[in-house]
Amino acid sequence: MSETSLSPGWVHVLRDGTKVRLRLACREDFPLWCRMIEACTPETIWKRFEVHSKEVFLKRAEGFFSCGGEGELVVVAELVERPGTLVGEARMCLIPGGEVAEFCVLVADPWQGKGLGSLLTELALRMGKERGVKRVLVEVVPENVTIINFLRKRGFRFRRDPDGLIFLGEKILD
Ligand SMILES: CC(C)(COP(=O)(O)OP(=O)(O)OC[C@H]1O[C@@H](n2cnc3c(N)ncnc32)[C@H](O)[C@@H]1OP(=O)(O)O)[C@@H](O)C(=O)NCCC(=O)NCCS
After folding, report:
1. HSE (CB half, 13 Å, CA atoms) of 52?
2. What number does the ligand 1 atom closest to the CA of 154 have?
3. Which end of the chain is more exposed for a tag (fewer CB within 10 A), N or C?
4. pTM exceeds 0.85, yes or no
């Protein structure tokens, strides 16, 4: 599946032969990131950001974009054959103290189901661990069964929050 071992900057070949480069996000990625969001369905935007309208989301996009300051680690996937086209991201937001991070992942709809979400998740978790993260948290809307199953297979344990509106996941990095 991959040409090299999994690490940022390397090129990986997805299940359908698409080549992606996994790298850390930078400030200049904002317009590219917006184009990636435009390629997402409203359902994907809802599952990732809990915002119903894509148009409303894009108006406030700057507030959601972050290229990973000191407290954040953001990995993006860029098409090798179409430089400047981002197709997915995974991020770890470090909670002050450094040992706990919040995780989230998104793959734009046309590139889902090809193995990219798995790659991004594995890389973000590995990089978090290298930075000293010991516990990873995730918040998911209950109807997002795909991501709950996906993360359960990768060692996350889930429980409903007390008011039942959110599933809270946790993974200990060992
Ligand atoms: C969840 C998500 C990141 C998965 O990315 P992806 O690139 O499609 O995932 P992969 O191709 O690596 O597949 C991962 C697994 O999910 C399964 N899967 C992928 N799409 C699926 C679908 N539509 N329905 C059911 N299972 C699906 C695959 O079979 C695979 O199974 P495995 O765990 O046995 O390997 C992607 O669907 C997405 O961005 N969803 C919307 C945003 C979101 O929900 N983010 C989570 C908030 S933190």
Report:
1. 0
2. 33
3. C
4. yes
Question: For atom 16 of ligand 1, which residue has the closest CA?
Answer: 150
Return d(Cα 1, Cα 15) in angstroms, integer.
Answer: 7
Q: Which domain holds residue 145?
A: 11-172
The residue whose CA is least distant from atom 45 of ligand 1 is: 48
**Has residue 3 been placed in a domain?**
no
Centre of ligand 1 to C-alpha 122, Å, is: 13
Pairwise CA distance, residues 38 & 152, whole Å: 29
- Provide the domain count of the chain: 1
Which tens digits make up the pLDDT trace of 81-124?
999 999 999 999 999 887 999 999 999 999 999 999 999 999 99
Say which CATH number the domain at 71 has: 3.40.630.30
